[in-house]
Structure formats: C-alpha cells, structure tokens
Amino acid sequence: MSEQDKITDANAAPQFDRRQLIKLVVELGPLLVFFFANSHYGIFVGTAVFMVTTIVALAASRIFLGRIATMPLVTGIFVVVFGGLTLYLQDDHFIKMKPTIVNGLFAAILFGGLVFDRLFLKIVFGDVMRLTREGWRILTIRWALFFIVLAVLNEVMWRFFSTDTWVAFKVFGIMPLTFVFAMAQIGVLKKYEDTTPVTASSVTEDI
To answer: Measured between alpha carbons, how far is 47 from 34 in angstroms, rounded to an integer?
Structure first.
C-alpha cells in the first residue's frame, strides 16, 4: 500500500465514523429529548419539543450529510402534522397514533409496489447494497410485515398502557427491535447479493 493510500484510508475512517454518528444522533436525538421532556413536563410539552428537535435533526442531516433520507423525512412530516394536531386540539391521541399510521403507510407502499411489480425498497437502499430481484422482493415482504408488526405493537402500547410506558417503549423498544430485525436479514443480503457488473441498464431495470 502506498503512502497516498494510507493517507486516504486514514482520512476515510474518521469520516465514516462521523457520518454514522450523525445518523445516530439524527434518529435517536429527538426520541431521547421526547422521553426526557415527557417524563418531566408531560406529553404536550414533550410533543412540542419532539417537533422542534425533529426539524432540527432533519436540518442537521441536510447540512452535515448532504441529504435527508426518505424514511426520516416522511416520519418527520408526520411528527409535525400529528404533533401540531395534538397541541392544537390538546388531544394526545394524535401523536400516539402517528407511529401506527406511519408504519402502516410504509407497509402499504411496499406491498403496493409488489402488486405493481415495483421494488420501492430498492429505491431507498439501492445505493448502499446490491441484491438480485428475488432478494429485493424477499426483503420487501419481510420489511412490510415488520412495519405491520410495529403498527400493531404501537396500538397495543398506547391503548392498554400509560402514556409514560408508551413513550418509553417508543424510545427504548422500537429501535432495538428494528436493529435486531435488520441484523436478522443479513442471511438474505448474503444469499441474494448481486455480483453482476454494474451497467446503466441494471441500475434502473428492477425499479
């Protein structure tokens, strides 16, 4: 390895770590602030703070990462809309139902894409991993089912448990579950990895 390669690798590693740290802060930051604000000041103050920190996190993603990922953007829009309804009507049902609606929407989009032979998951993650068409279909079905599970879990938590318990589950339950589920898909990623050379046609043919 040349000296130039060593310098490049040394510079690349910290950059990778910084990007991952920023992504983690963007995803977890608003939730942690929401948990803290709710536990000390109640659900309405927590919702207001959640809205503000979500907007700040999306702006930080745009500034430091150069883009806002699709799923955090959609979730952020729903946080602002349903959070606004919660504060305006002083009814916490709206912010509690938001995860159900968002996860249900993601599941419907993925399943709807399959009906029309469109692999929407590839549009979101196609720049970070390459799979065969069958691999994308399997992954799409699994993620769609997982979103349905999250929607059902959210309904159970907010309808049958206290607000504090629901917030705790939203902050400390959903993320670990998502991480475990994502790790469980590694076998699919390896089995259906697309090793064919990249061409202009192969980038768009499955979308």
So the answer is: 7
Domain holding 173, by residue range, is: 92-207
Report how far residue 161's alpha carbon sits from residue 138's, in angstroms, rounded to the nearest whole number: 34
Residues 5 and 85 in one domain: yes
Would you give the distance in Å from CA 45 to the centre of its chain?
24
3-state secondary structure of 46: helix
Q: Check pLDDT > 80 for residue 161.
A: yes
- The residue out of 55, 89, 123 marking a domain boundary is 89
User: Rounded to 5, what percent of the chain is helix, strand, coil?
Assistant: 85, 0, 15
Structurally, how many domains does the chain consist of? 2
Residue pLDDT, tens place only, 21-56: 777 777 788 999 999 999 999 999 999 999 999 999
Residues 47, 1 within the same domain: yes
Helices (H), the chain: 3-41, 43-65, 70-89, 93-115, 120-125, 133-160, 163-172, 174-184, 186-191, 200-204
Q: Return the number of other C-beta atoms located less than 10 Å from residue 187's C-beta.
A: 9
Cβ proximity of 131 and 139 under 8 Å: yes
Q: Which one, of 93, 70, 67, lies nearest residue 82 by Cα?
A: 93
Task: Give how far Cα 196 sits from Cα of 37, 131, 199, Å.
Answer: 50, 10, 9
